């Protein structure tokens, strides 16, 4: 385990560790030691250069909307319509999130507001507009 701001971080980021952090209102990612790319989800290799030399990092919980869309035709197995998802820039990483509350636009500042856990125990971070 490594530490960041006195929080122990796993050496290798597994989905289980990532999901547990989301449930604790924390976001984890991975930083590549070769190219410095930061990814917002667990991966076996850097999404930029393919290196396997990755370090777990804590991501900010405040960011900016990079892109967004509203889901009016939900995936199979989901009933809800008209919900918004966004790719949010969190420091050097981008993470797909669910937007709760007010509609957001590209460039809006957002903050982590919790998580939803409706798909067989797979949490997804939720964000809302920053005050």
Give an account of the 3D structure.
7% of the residues lie in helices and 45% in strands. The chain has 1 helix and 10 strands; from the N terminus they run E-E-H-E-E-E-E-E-E-E-E. A hairpin with a 2-residue loop joins strand 1 (2-4) and strand 2 (7-9).
Write a brief structural summary.
With 131 residues, the protein is mainly beta. 7% of the residues lie in helices and 45% in strands.
Terminal CA distance reads 35 Å
Which structural class best describes the helix and strand composition? Answer: mainly beta
Mean pLDDT: 90
Enumerate the spans where pLDDT stays under 50 for 5 or more consecutive residues.
none
Strand content: over 45%
Task: Looking at this protein, list some descriptive labels.
1 helix; five-stranded mixed barrel; 131 residues; 2 domains; mainly beta
């Amino acid at each position: 385990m490594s530490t960041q701001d006195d929080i122990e971080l796993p050496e290798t980021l597994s989905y289980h560790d990532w999901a547990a952090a989301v449930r604790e209102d924390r976001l984890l990612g991975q930083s590549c030691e070769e190219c410095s790319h930061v990814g917002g989800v667990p991966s076996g290799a850097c999404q930029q250069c393919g290196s396997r030399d990755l370090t777990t990092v804590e991501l900010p919980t405040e960011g900016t909307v990079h892109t967004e869309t509203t889901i009016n035709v939900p995936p199979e197995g989901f009933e809800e319509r008209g919900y918004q998802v966004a790719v949010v820039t969190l420091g050097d990483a981008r993470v797909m999130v669910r937007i709760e509350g007010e509609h957001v636009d590209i460039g809006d500042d957002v903050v982590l507001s919790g998580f939803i856990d409706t798909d067989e125990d797979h949490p997804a971070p939720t964000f809302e507009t920053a005050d």
